[in-house]
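Journal club side-thread
Mid-discussion, someone asked how the predicted structure for our own chain would compare to the paper's figures. Pasting it here so we can look after the session.
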Amino acid sequence: MFERRMDWQIKQVSTNKKQFLSLLLLADEQESMIDRYLDRGDLFVMYVDEATWIAVAVVTEEEEGVYELKNLAVDPAYQRKGIGRQMVDFLCRHYQQTGHTLLVGTGDSRQTVSFYQSCGFTYSHTLPDFFTENYDHPIVEDGKVLTDMIYFRKDLPKVCLVTPVDRTVSLVEELVKLWEASVRATHHFLTEKDILHLTPFVEEAVRGIETLLVMYLGNRPVGFLGLLDLKIEMLFVAPDYFGNGLGRQLVEMAIEKYHVHYVDVNEQNPRAEGFYRHIGFRTFARTEMDEQGNPFPILKMKLQDNKV
């Protein structure tokens, strides 16, 4: 497994895993505990060049479809730069085709718990006295001696490429309803009359767009992205899943697999503009009206070359 960006690369390492022990010990400071999962786990390493390893992660399969993130560490020189979040996003994309759940266990550290919650994990269960019973010395984080292991979980979505012939009436209806809910939650400049007016255009676009990626959690569509040539024509996520990184996963898949470079954003939707800007898009033009001739200014954005 290999993933590359202009400023970093991730690869899976299957041999000589102990060469990364210094990084692994940042997240799990007892080597004998690392030995419990390192050999049977998948080790991923992020680096900027062959001599500069900046992050590691180890994931084990605990049962069919259930994976556990056992170790995630970032070199101190690269912390607070979004590296950990990027590694988690990569792992979710990597395992979502073979699994349905990603677990992670951590101590009751506010900073660590907050990080995983921001990545879309929710509380699962607690293993009492895990740290006191399994480590030969007190484990301290943020000035607090850890005792229990707190488990969090994240349901892994699956992304399907849906060809025009497979876009059933029921699927199109579900996606249009998803669009309506998403637009009502984000496009506050639209009136109900505007939404009703746009609905037939959206239905037609969903039926006919060249490339349609639909994200599912279980059997429920929770997001979709439509592409034409090198441009994102539509991206919507169900409001219940805002902030869980699903939209970002879809966009990154579009960039990596379909080489998209362009997207149009409503100027009156600053949240969307900020979302794409954070990923690496920048505005290069502006129009006073949208494609249907409505008085909704459009920002035309292009992905920066160093983000490809």
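Post-session note: The chain is about 30% helix and 35% strand.
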